[in-house]
Every structure is written in structure tokens, then in C-alpha cells.
Amino acid sequence: MRSSSSPSNGPEGRPAARLALAATLAGTLLAASACAVGPTSAQPAAEVAVPVAAPSSAAPSSAAPTPTGAPAVVPDALRFTARTLDGTAFSAAALAGRPVVLWFWAPWCATCASQAWTVAEIAPKYRDTVPIVGVAGLGEQKAMRSFVTEFELGGTTQIDDRAGALWRRFEIVEQSTFLIIDRQGKVVHQGFLDGEDLTRRVAALAG
């Protein structure tokens, strides 16, 4: 004969047991959920840290090198890339922190030809202190290359600007034009220079 004294086996005892079991399961699930939230909520913070840190590395447009010898900040005037006449990639940012001379020339220009010998003579001497970079335009690539060979300019960087992108960027309206950028990234001269003036200015910048 089955005893009726045990509440767990009777009809009235079963709901109580089920409630206890449900409470136990709910507690277990809440604990598991609480453990899962930690790593998930922390992940976005790590992802945001990268873009947030980026602006701090950006600095005003100034070409002055840092006292610690770290890479100089790139001024606006040197924020461009191009291809040289021999097809090599060129980035003006690599010249930041030094005075730079951009020489805008055309292969058919008689004035450019008269200045080419001076450039060929002094450019190698001041390569590390005052880089002189030719910007060839207003002509065909074959003629530009012939000009470089004829006037022995192979030892200097010569940009292929047949499309005129840099000529427009710096508002060059005639050839031959020398554009001089100082150490701080400021354009301090834009216009004609004869061989003597060019040599004197480059020597002063190097000093």
C-alpha cells in the first residue's frame, strides 16, 4: 500500500519540485550568461583604440625635424607621389626635413637646356642636404629621356609629369621654373634662376 505522507510523490508535490528545478536551471543560465558578457563587451574597446590613436600621430603641416631625430613631419608642399622617367615610384615625403628644389622643365626648352648643365653639376654635390628634383613636362617621354641623357642628368631624380599634375598643383605657368621649399615646408622662391643664382641659393640652403 502506497504511503500518502510523502509530498514529493503526490500530485501536489510535483509542481513544487518542478519549480525548484526551474529555479536551479535559471540560476545556472544567468551565471553562464554573465561570464560570456565580459570578453564580448571588451572587444569593441580594443578595436576603437587603433583609430583613436591615429589622430595623435598626425601633426600640423611643418617640415621641422623633431629634436629626437625621429622622421620629420611632412609639409603640404611635399605631400605627393609620382613616377620618375625610368619608372621608379617616387614619394616627396621622403625629403621632409630638408630644403628641396623642384625644377620644372620641358625637353624642347632652350632655357632649360642652358640650366641643365648647372643642375647636373651641383645636384650630386647637394643630394643629401638640398635635393634637386626635376619635373619634366610639356613633352613626350622619349624626348624627356633624351634630354636627361644629353645633359647628363641621370644622377638626379627626374619626375615624368607628362600629364601635368604637378605643374598644375604648383601653378607653374612657364618653363624653366625653380620652386624652392625650405626646411619648414614653405615655398621661398618660385620663378626663373640662372646658373649662378641657383648655385648661390642651394649653397646657402645647405649651410
From TrEMBL:
UniProt cross-references to Pfam families, sorted A to Z: AhpC-TSA
InterPro entries, alphabetized: AhpC/TSA, Thioredoxin-like_sf, Thioredoxin_CS, Thioredoxin_domain, Thioredoxin_ResA/DsbE_sf
Keywords: Signal
Endpoints of the signal sequence: 1-36
Domain Thioredoxin: 53-207
Statement: the UniProt record of this protein carries the keyword Signal: yes
Protein name: Redoxin domain-containing protein
Organism: Micromonospora humida
